Amino acid sequence: MRRPTAPLTVLALALALTGCGAKVSGDGGSDASGRHSAGAAGHHPVTVENCGTRTTYDKAPRRVVTNDVGITEIMFALGLEGRMAGYAMPDDKGDLNGLPWKAAYDKVPRLSEKPLTKEMVLDARADLVFAGWNYGFGEDTGLTPAALGKLGIGSYVLTESCHHGTDGTARGVMPPLKALYTDLTTLGKIFGVEDRAAALVKKYKRQVADAAALAPAPGDRPTVFLYDDGRDKPLTSGKYAGPHDIITKAGGENIMKDLTDSWTTVGWETVVARNPDVIVINNYGDTSAARKKAFLESYAPLAGVPAVKHHRIYVMDYAELVESPRNPAAVGDLARYLRGVRARG
User: Fold this and answer.
1) What is this structure's pTM?
2) Which residues partner with 130 through β-bridges?
3) Are 218 and 339 in contact (CB under 8 A)?
4) Which helix (H) or strand (E) covers residue 64, if one does?
5) Per-residue pLDDT tens over the stretch 177-211
6) Are 226 and 282 in contact (CB under 8 A)?
7) CA 113 → CA 131, 237, 254, 292, distances in Å?
8) Which of 11, 17, 114, 284 could make an S-S bridge to 318, C-beta 3.0–4.6 Å?
9) Nearest to 43 by CA among 230, 185, 143, 188
10) Quick check: 29 pLDDT over 60?
11) What is the Cα–Cα distance from 121 to 112, expressed in whole angstroms?
């Protein structure tokens, strides 16, 4: 579901963010404007950069549609549920009742338990779609910023999923937690809630810093492999997906940190050669975490790997591992677990 897609063209980018009274700049450079107090009269127009494209918004979007749990909760964390027309989210994202955004989930319509489609967007009368490449947007489905732009609907692309590279298929352009902070800050400008965005970023950075006190000592950092799913080839996290920063800030070392991509596949021989001390399972998809763990423990090539040999397999929820407001707390939870792991034990 999160595999790389085809390149995003300059034309697609130009069309992607033309809704909501938005105008796309042609130079693609960064922009430092739009520093206004939250909710101030005359906040707009405001210019922001998203995945390398500058866009000027003449007004804040009023009917936003989001895809998936992390993206939806970014809007909720910013208090923007009143600006939303709905969200699409599969039914395998865990219990939402204990979340601080429970009231927002109750307020905003759930459009579907299936992936977002163009028809859902049109039925919701959306003026902005907030999704990511392979997190709602995809050339294979026809739901792209370019396609929406032709309909006069704007798009905001999740920074974790920005395309990069010479062929445009790899994703990610900055460290994962920085991507979260970037999206919070940018959306704060678009919607005129910059003070709220700044407070969240400050809170999350403090949570991550506090987790450092729980992390293993610098000389005893266990190596960690993130396992999403896959029998023939495992889907894992490169340096631009959320797990990389979560593992690193928690005091571990992501064995796939050299992959300049977000979510991507590797070969089992690479996992075995890099000999992880810990395996983190992403509790996501049709295959349960218990079944994933059973597979890892029964897969012969992994039998001698310390994580399997010493039963150091740790389960984390999908919403903690994709870019979302749950990332900072997840750093602390993993840090507490890794603290008890003696590297190369």
Assistant:
1) 0.85
2) 66, 156
3) no
4) strand 64-67
5) 999 999 999 999 999 999 999 999 999 999 999 99
6) yes
7) 15, 25, 32, 23
8) 284
9) 188
10) no
11) 11
Q: Which residue has the tokens 């389960």?
A: 315
- Mean pLDDT computed over every residue of the chain: 86
Closest by Cα among 289, 249, 254 to 270: 254
Following DSSP, what letter does each residue of 23-54 receive, concatenated?
A: EE-SS----------TT-TT--SEEEEETTEE
- State the DSSP H helix or E strand holding residue 24, giving kind and residue range, or none if neither: strand 22-24
Amino acid code (one letter) for 85:
A
What does the block give as tokens for 80?
């923007």
Mean pLDDT throughout 38-57?
A: 79
Which helix (H) or strand (E) element contains residue 67? strand 64-67
Compute the distance between CA of residue 168 and CA of residue 316 in angstroms, rounded to an integer: 30
Dihedral of CA 36/194/196/247: which sign?
Answer: negative
Straight-line distance from the first to the last Cα atom of the chain, in angstroms, rounded to the nearest whole number: 35
Say how far apart CA 130 and CA 150 lie, in whole Å: 16
3-state helix, strand, coil in the chain (%, to 5): 35, 20, 45
Distance CA 214, CA 218 (A): 12
**What pLDDT score was predicted for residue 91?**
75
3-state secondary structure of 329: helix
Q: Are 287 and 306 in contact (CB under 8 A)?
A: no
Residue 291 phi, psi dihedral angles, 5° rounding: -70, -40
Helix (H) or strand (E) holding 13: helix 10-16
Sequence letter at residue 215: A
Question: Please, which residues have CB within 8 angstroms of residue 318's CB and are 6 or more apart in sequence?
Answer: 69, 92, 93, 94, 282, 283, 284
Q: Read out DSSP for 96-123?
A: -TTSTTHHHHHHS-EEESS---HHHHHH
What pairs with residue 87 in β-bridges?
A: 66, 110
Residues in the chain: 345
Q: What is the DSSP letter of 229?
A: B
The residue whose two tokens read 């593992």 is 247
